[in-house]
Amino acid sequence: MQKNWYRLDTAALIFPAIARPDWCNTFRFSATLKEAVAPDILQQAVNDLERRFPTFFVALRNGVFWHYLEQSGEHIKVQPDYAYPLTFMRKKDLKHNCVRVLYYKNRIAVEIFHSVTDGHGGSIFLSNLVTRYMELRHGITCPRTDTIFDLSGTPTEEELENSFFKYAAEGAAARKEPRVYRMHGTREPDGFKHLTTGIVETQALLDAAHRFGVSVTSFLAAVMTESVIAMQDLEKPRKKQRPVKISLAVDLRRMFGSKTLRNFALALNTGVDPRFGDYTLEEICKSISHQLGLYATKQNLAGMIKANVQFQELVPLRLTPLFLKDFGMNLVYESVGETVSCLNISNITRIALPEILQPYIDRMEFIIGTQRSYPNNCSVLSFGGKTYINMIRNIREAELERRFFSRLVELDVPVEIESNRR
């Protein structure tokens, strides 16, 4: 049987090249139900999604010039959630499937290799999986929407496209940015990831952000920036410090009207330079909000897209053998890939599920992993009136989480803390 295959989109190209066991190459969405998961019904729900979501049921292949994704030919088999979140997807795993579906007691989780899609695509996949599971489990019928699909239908060309090529500008934006402060600590030798979840009332978080006149994303980035500055102050005098920047993921679909289910996001690095003087939280909030307003325009983002896609258009590079491409991309990533931000904050503002399902679901969460060279990351998702702030690290020291969540409490945002600390 002829298997469908897909070129890696522009954002996906780097991940096979830089993969190694001490770096997390997946992200995770999960739904905690108000009842125990039935594995056999979950397996049927996964199978029912296969035709409608072909780019998720794929394996990673190596071509002569590029990596690519190919229809797996194997069902994704649901399995117990057997370890800590976001265990590394090995090459032999990726040769079978690039997506895991896991269950544990009341929880359904999906872990996705970064080359398959981004947070938006992952949230749609989980939403449809949970919807189909509930229909099978309880004999209900959920209404179809822009994000809950008719599984008997076929994917559109827009859903399968590489939108980076489609929306790139004629000219490329400059890419050079200053190196920033790097956090560090005692690495866990066995790769264990510490996960600390701060649960807050969404309205309290909105109220706090509005008091500073900014969005929730800008507010959280400002509090995180303030926390990192305080940590750098303990290590060196101001004149020897580096800028503190937080990388904020921007979903480009909203700006360009894309419907792709593959990667289509960019990171904007926002922050301040402590060498210029002391900042109040209000000043950091305003600075980050203004930076987002300046850079998150359609024209500037199109220029950034062009900067990312232009190397794919170079004929000599296209004809370079894959092993040399991987070697080169790995070298570039080592030298500059993680030098322009201290950590990421990825905020899925909300996940859309049919209202009929609300009584069956307790909570939903989003977790991104740590990077190769910096130890902390943060992901945010709001559901059912609560916002779940997941801070993950691969070091023993919990200083950043302590400062960040303590500051939120000081700002009248009460935080309930959960942890997988061992």
What does this protein look like?
The chain is an alpha+beta fold. The protein has 2 domains: about 5-165, Chloramphenicol Acetyltransferase (2-Layer Sandwich); about 165-420, Chloramphenicol Acetyltransferase (2-Layer Sandwich). It is about 35% helix and about 20% strand. The chain contains 14 helices and 15 strands. The protein has helices at about 15-20, 40-50, 90-95, 120-140, 155-160, 165, 200-210, 215-235, 255, 280-295, 300-310, 315-320, 320-335, 400-410; strands at about 5, 25-35, 60, 65-70, 80, 100-105, 105-115, 195-200, 245-250, 265-270, 345-350, 360-370, 375-385, 385-395, 415-420. Strand 5, helix 3 (about 90-95) and strand 6 (about 100-105) form a beta-alpha-beta unit. Helix 2 crosses helix 4 (about 120-140). The longest helix is centred in the N-terminal third of the chain and has 20 residues, at about 120-140. The termini are far apart. The mean pLDDT is about 90.
Structural class, by secondary structure, is alpha+beta
Number of domains: 2
Average pLDDT score: 92
H and E string: EHEHEEEHEEHHHEHHEHEHHHHEEEEHE
Give the neighbour order of strands across the main sheet: 10-9-11-13-14-8-15
What fraction of the residues are assigned to beta strands by DSSP? 15-25%
Shape: globular
The description of the largest β-sheet is: 7 strands, mixed
CATH-level-2 architecture of the largest domain: 2-Layer Sandwich
CATH topology of the largest domain: Chloramphenicol Acetyltransferase
Uncertain residue segments: none
Compute the number of strand runs. Answer: 15
Q: What is the share of helical residues?
A: 25-40%
Tell me, what is the CATH class of the largest domain?
Alpha Beta
Oligomeric state of the chains present here? single chain
